Amino acid sequence: MSQAPLQSYRKMIADALRELDVESLRKFSDFRADTIASYLNRDPEYAKRFVEDHPTRFLEVFYKVKPWLSDKVLDLVLHTYINWIEAKALELLGIGKPVPKLRRVPYEPGNDLIDWDETIERVTETLSPSLENVVSYERWRTKRSVALIMDHSGSMSGSKILVAALSTAVLAYLLRDEEYAVILYSDKPRVIKDMREYREVRAIVREILSTPPTGYTDIAAALRAGLQQLQRASHKEKMGVLITDGIYTTEDPVPVAAKYPQLHVIGVQTRRGKVIDREVCGEMAKVSGGVFQVVDSYEHIPLTLANVVKGYARRGELSW
Which of 42, 103, 118, 309 is deepest in the core (most CB within 10 A)? Predict the structure, then answer.
């Protein structure tokens, strides 16, 4: 390349950085990733501002320039992304707090959780206002073990990886005193967090963001990995949550899904306008007694995941 065009590209890249023009930066990153990285290395503040202002789009740039970034800038970018994801996850979970399950117990003075309709009906039938006819409840919750299984194949764009990291953070904070495993899959499943392992949420999110997607989609192999994690679980209530478009490149995953105690499936469209294979997604949920939720955008997945795990979703409902 002659010196003149190179100087021209450098000026355009410098202008894109100064103006926080992420779309131009994405285009330049296809063939001048090293030049972009050199500017970011000289002034790391640009990287931080891009993450804060354009987190989704800049992630695609980040994967292309990553090999040329200094350790300092690499850590700054990941640290800024993790802060954003952590704050977003806590914000999403604050939208709707989990409703505790209730179970009937003998009435004791001081318990204000009384089913008045049932109590009045019993008193009316027996014509006796005794305490034996008072129907009361206590709050309780069965601890859960959840295997989260997410597509991480080559069709994943920057936005989808960001959502995968955010979904993991949502699940981690939602089950902070319970058990969960995180599995990313392409042609091979990769266990990011083992069911019985303790890992800081920020460390898990960092690993997801640091791993560019590759390969094809072997849903059946991913489901087997999820089953292995659930076999290691210690809580009575066990479930898998699969985030997928239902399009597989190997064997039929439905027979593997049938082995789950419960498998919830969140279906989402693929890139380039491909549709969800609703039949496969629906069958995987049906054979395991789970729910099949459809979302029209990856941005809706984290909140849908929280609703599914908390038991708000029901079979046949669409989330969005």
Answer: 309
